[in-house]
Design a protein that fits this description.
The chain has 16 helices and no strands. By secondary structure, the chain is mainly alpha-helical.
Length: about 425
């Protein structure tokens, strides 16, 4: 694969540059050693567990718990809980990334976040007011983003540039597989969400133990602590890089459009979609998620492989974001169950390819190799930040329009803008 100008520059540096202190090839350089044997399956398992919880808890169990507590105001209450808790995700992700950079280790942070989620899930299932649900889920977002920040940094740390499409595909496959597991477990415990919470916590905890025990890591040089002002400035400095900034904007727009709809899927099936007789909304979720997952698996594998083969990241990222926009138009103009099936399949094709290839693209535009976890944490603000806005926007749009059609249309526009945002990136084709 032809190297971009950024990858050839030791001054600008990315995850593909030389080591910041030794001058030896960095972990992501073309000459870096091959990743630890079995790393890709472990990445798949780690991301699968994470997405299972991210999909199954807010998408099913949390929505049911909030509906039980406040049935008349469920949309507004769900939007409030989701938005406030996403603030914690936004804060903890880059902070945890910087702390793991400083420690020179990833595995202990993955293990700590994975184990702490279990007592938090126990707490979440035991509360009975919207305020306490909000507090408990905020704690859940905090510890899961400690886990996520360290796990996300494994690819730029340990995988050569030429293999990042495959590694990103392994990471990306965690979303469809995890979504399916999350939907099935959520549906299985829809009548007993307290036990469901514990099951999700146990899945993440067990996977964290497996990953930290089996994925050997080489300790990186620890970093000296910086004053608070310098740390804040360091977080912002990544966005001063032209290509990284546009990658951030594109990710933020697409994620905003995606979660504006995905976060309310159960309520959409209850209040917008005309389901066949005898099919409950919870059962409908358990059908849609595997369909979406199969489409994601196909597009994730093909997208990662083809983007490596043709060295064309921007083309695949832009096209997949545009396809996701097309998918959102289908249920906007039809409330039928068939429309939701088509939407799930086409959206899976678009979003799966996008996440696989965009992850590879992002690792190639990281401003500095030595700050990979911190900068990936900043990039993950583009994942978590829109989740702060999405629930408020979605609940406002639904309340003002009296339905979900306008929400689908707005999400489609955001996806188109996300597709266009990759065009200004210069250092990656």
């Amino acid at each position: 694969m032809a190297l971009s100008s950024r990858e050839n520059s030791s001054e600008t540096g990315t995850g593909s540059g030389t080591g910041p202190e030794t001058g030896e090839p960095g972990p992501g350089s073309p000459s870096a050693p091959r990743p630890t044997r079995g790393l890709l399956p472990l990445l798949l398992a780690g991301n699968t567990a994470m997405y299972a919880l991210y999909i199954g808890v807010p998408g099913m169990l949390l929505a049911l718990q909030i509906e039980e507590i406040s049935p008349a105001d469920k949309v507004a209450a769900f939007g409030l809980v989701s938005g406030i808790s996403a603030v914690f995700a936004t804060v903890f992700n880059p902070v945890a990334g910087a702390l793991s950079d400083r420690s020179g280790r990833r595995n202990p942070w993955i293990l700590a976040g994975g184990l702490l989620i279990l007592p938090v899930m126990l707490l979440l299932g035991s509360v009975h007011t919207i305020l306490l649900v909000t507090i408990a889920w905020c704690l859940g977002q905090a510890v899961m983003n400690v886990y996520q920040a360290a796990l996300t940094s494994v690819v730029p740390d340990r995988v050569p540039v030429a293999a990042r499409g495959k590694a990103s595909a392994a990471v990306g496959l965690g979303l469809p597989v995890g979504s399916t597991i999350g939907a099935l477990v959520g549906a299985a415990f829809s009548e007993d969400y307290r036990t469901g919470y514990l099951v999700f916590g146990a899945i993440v905890a067990a996977t964290a133990v497996l990953f930290s025990a089996c994925a050997r890591e080489q300790r990186m040089p620890a970093k000296a602590p910086l004053p608070v002002k310098q740390q804040i400035a360091a977080f912002g400095s990544a966005l001063g890089d032209h290509d990284f900034r546009w990658a951030f904007i594109g990710r933020a727009l697409l994620v905003l459009g995606y979660f504006a709809v995905a976060g309310f899927q159960l309520y959409i099936l209850k209040d917008h979609t005309e389901l066949p007789a005898g099919l409950s909304p919870e059962e409908a979720v358990a059908i849609l998620m595997p369909l979406n997952a199969v489409a994601m698996v196909v597009s994730t594998v093909l997208g990662g492989w083809l983007s490596d083969r043709y060295d064309r990241r921007k083309l695949f990222v832009g096209a997949s974001a545009a396809l996701a926009a097309v998918a959102l138009l289908v249920p906007a103009f039809s409330t039928s169950w068939t429309a939701m099936l088509v939407f799930s399949a086409v959206n899976g094709l678009g979003f799966g390819c996008y996440m696989a290839v965009d992850t590879a693209l992002v690792t190639m535009v990281l401003p500095k190799a030595g700050d990979a976890a911190r900068d990936m944490g900043v990039l993950n603000v583009a994942n978590a930040g829109p989740q702060i806005v999405a629930p408020f926007v979605a609940s406002l749009v639904v309340s003002l329009s009296g339905g979900y059609t306008a929400l689908f249309l707005i999400a489609a526009v955001l996806s188109v803008l996300g597709a266009l945002a990759v065009r200004p990136i210069r250092s990656v084709r």
